[in-house]
Amino acid sequence: MRRTVALIIVWISFFCGLFSQEHLLLRQENTVNHSTLFGIGKAYLSDSYLSPLTYSGMSMTLMHDRLKRSPYFAGELLLQQQFQIQVGITENPTASASEYYGDIRYYLTSFYPLIQTSRFKLLGGPGWEASLGGIYNVRNSNNPGSLKVSTNLNLSAMALCSFRWGTLRWQLSTPFVGLFFSPEYGHSYYEIFTLGNNKGTVHLGSFHNQLALRNYFTVDVPLNRITLRAGYLGDYYQTDVNELSTKIVNHQFLLGLAFESLNFGGRKVRHNEMLKSSYY
Question: N or C terminus of the chain: which is more exposed, having fewer CB within 10 Å?
Fold first, then answer.
């Protein structure tokens, strides 16, 4: 009788333990890695629609980076979103004229682990980007500006390496197919947008007329209550179409803060005993 009671107690304890573990797993929430970075560096602008010369000068970037684990592929697929604002102030080789550059970009990229160990990860996947910007030349009177609009499907790879003192990340991406805007040679923007003569301004972009490479390197160093993120961002973009060539190159040093967060909303925050809202 005592053995039977003991076996029943052990049996009940075993299943209670399993239930509690499953309950904890169900309650587990994946965090989101955020960072806001400011970058400063060097820019090189070459646009034959505006000038045959290459302009060089200072460039600045403000970028928000967000990386989270998605529910797809058993939770192994990572989704990254990046929103970037970039400006550049450049001069020609004789410093007699200036060009100004501005650009807004959005990136959405998925990463699936290809190699994964306790300290190293190699991930890869497709992505999408959209860009809106332009170059303005103060010397030109008839055609002072050049519009830069593009959208592309990208291929990306990311490597993560963890150490006791921090984490290193190296990320590469390049477009393989997309669309971009470019006027024809001698084609004015007055004709395109006022007279409606916009034939031949939207082009299918691929490796034959559009080359780009984005090199993104960061190092995370956790301090007392914050994580310092520093890095390098290298952007190379080149198009060659309608007898017009454009080349935009940026090299920038990045510095900012990174943090982890839990995203809750709706019923999750109203009816969750683990969370104490300051509003609801």
Answer: N
Give the separation between CA 104 and CA 93, rounded to whole angstroms. 27
Q: Name the 3-class secondary structure at 93.
A: coil
Q: Helix %, strand %, coil % for the chain, to 5? A: 10, 60, 30
Distance in angstroms (rounded) separating the CA atoms of residues 217 and 37: 12
Give the integer Cα–Cα distance in Å for 46 and 246. 6
**Could you tell me if residue 244 is left (phi over 0), alpha (psi between -120 and 50 degrees) or otherwise beta?**
beta
CATH of domain 31-260: 2.40.128.100
Q: What's the Cα-to-Cα distance from 252 to each of 37, 44, 122, rounded to whole Å?
A: 11, 12, 24
Q: Is residue 151 a contact partner of residue 181, using CB atoms and an 8 Å limit? A: no
pLDDT tens-place string over residues 35-94: 999 999 999 999 999 999 999 999 999 999 999 988 888 888 999 999 999 999 999 999
- DSSP element (H, E) containing 7: helix 2-27
In the chain, where the domains are located = 31-260
Q: Among 13, 98, 31, 33, which residue's Cα sits nearest to residue 256?
A: 33
Identify the pLDDT of residue 196: 84
Question: DSSP labels for 105-167?
Answer: EEEEEEEEEEEE-SSEEEEEEEEEEEEEEEEEESS-SSS-EEEEEEEEEEEEEEEEEE-SS-E
User: What's the pLDDT tens digit per position in 101-110?
Assistant: 999 999 999 9
Whole-prediction pTM: 0.83
Residue 24 has pLDDT above 60, yes or no: no
Backbone φ, ψ for residue 73 (5° rounding): 55, 50
Q: What is the dihedral of CA 33, 173, 180, 242, to 10 degrees?
A: 160
